[in-house]
Amino acid sequence: MKFIIFFIFIPLVYSGTHRFITTYTGTIGQTIAGTPEFSAVTTLDGQQIDYYDSNIKKMIPKQDWMKEFTSTKVWKEDTEIREGVQQIYKNNIHVLMKRFNQSDGVHTYQRMYGCEYDDETGQLYGFDQYGYDGEDFILLDLKENRYITAVQQGIPTVQKWNNRAQLEFLRQYYYNDCVYWLKEFLKLWKEAYRIKSPEVSLLQKDLSSSVVCHATGFYPSGVTITWLKNGQEHYEDVDLGELLPNVDGTFQKTSTLRVSPDEWKNNQFSCVVEHQGKTIRKTEDEIKSNYRLYVTILVCVMGVVIVLLTGTVYYSKMKKRMSGFIRVSVHDEGSICIDKGL
């Protein structure tokens, strides 16, 4: 399995499986200007909650509810850990380059570790894996409680890391500490994002285009979008989009209805969005489109033109009537976890 980026989106819900993941990435060689030699990202159910890199040399909370941790001892310790790992990774890449007989080029060394917890079944799962240049390097098998590798270059490291005391420490971390923090962060996230109702819009490019029912800004992620035709549920020519995350931790989803203009004209269609017991319905007269915007602007412009023309005619008539009077001038006064060497 190749792994360079570990942003796997798993919607945050009140129950089910949750994942708490930290990813370290060390890079060496000529890269794009400004690219950090080392970076660390922590995610909760696919949403980034903190960030660190060798350029800024500090941890940054990526969610508002994480900001309260920035003044804690734990935050300071995690920052110091990342500072130490940064140097370790630089050394480890040099070691790996020698083992793989590489003298130059751009190389990447990564670690992804964390835990998974199912709050319905209580099942726990820890994971810890390393990669080099996008390929598997070393994996911690928590069932066997030992490190394993599929490449010859990883054998010296496996022999070094398979220390009983160290392995027991890691087991305790993944099945206790890691899950503890997962639950704590999950609790804070739920408190920060209590039920938020969706904003629903009907969107259409022009009269011959499909109509999109777009729901966004809702939390938690469970939502149902249904099209009605003359009051009955309609599933033909309907494309349901995937659930997507918004940057603020809420979600969005779409459902597209593909029908002809004649079918729209001869029937009554509506989109119904249900979320946490609340129902929102949008009908044809609420569709937002470029065409409708154009018509609105055209009507406004025509209105202005009519007013101007009317005013011009009126002015002309008044000018004739006032031609015999004296002209008067009027003026307007107003207006977590320590890494190891290979």
Describe this structure in words.
The chain has helices at 73-99, 155-161, 164-192, 261-266, 290-322; strands at 17-28, 38-44, 47-53, 59-61, 107-118, 124-132, 135-141, 146-148, 199-204, 211-218, 224-229, 232-234, 238-240, 244-245, 251-257, 269-275, 278-283, 287-289. It is an alpha+beta fold and 342 residues long. It has 2 domains: 17-192, MHC class I-like antigen recognition-like (Murine Class I Major Histocompatibility Complex, H2-DB, Chain A, domain 1), CATH 3.30.500; 199-289, Immunoglobulins (Immunoglobulin-like, Sandwich), CATH 2.60.40. Mean pLDDT is 82; it is low at 1-14 and 292-336. The strands form 3 sheets. It has an 8-stranded antiparallel sheet, with helices on one face. Strands 9, 10, 13, 14, 15 and 18 form a 6-stranded mixed sheet that branches. The protein is elongated, with a radius of gyration of 31 Å. Helices cover 30% and strands 32% of the residues. It contains 5 helices and 18 strands.
Overview features:
single chain, 342 residues, alpha+beta, Murine Class I Major Histocompatibility Complex, H2-DB, Chain A, domain 1, Immunoglobulin-like, 8-stranded antiparallel beta sheet, 6-stranded mixed beta sheet, 18 strands
Largest sheet: 8 strands, antiparallel
Q: Mind telling me the CATH superfamily name of the largest domain? A: MHC class I-like antigen recognition-like
> Averaged pLDDT, please?
82
What is the CATH top level name of the largest domain?
Answer: Alpha Beta
Q: What proportion strand?
A: 25-35%
Give the topology string: H per helix, E per strand.
Answer: EEEEHEEEEHHEEEEEEEHEEEH
How far apart, in Å, are the first and last alpha carbons?
Answer: 21 Å
CATH architecture of the largest domain: 2-Layer Sandwich
Query: What is the count of distinct domains?
Result: 2
Helix content: 25-40%
CATH structural fold name of the largest domain? Murine Class I Major Histocompatibility Complex, H2-DB, Chain A, domain 1
CA gyration radius, whole angstroms: 31 Å
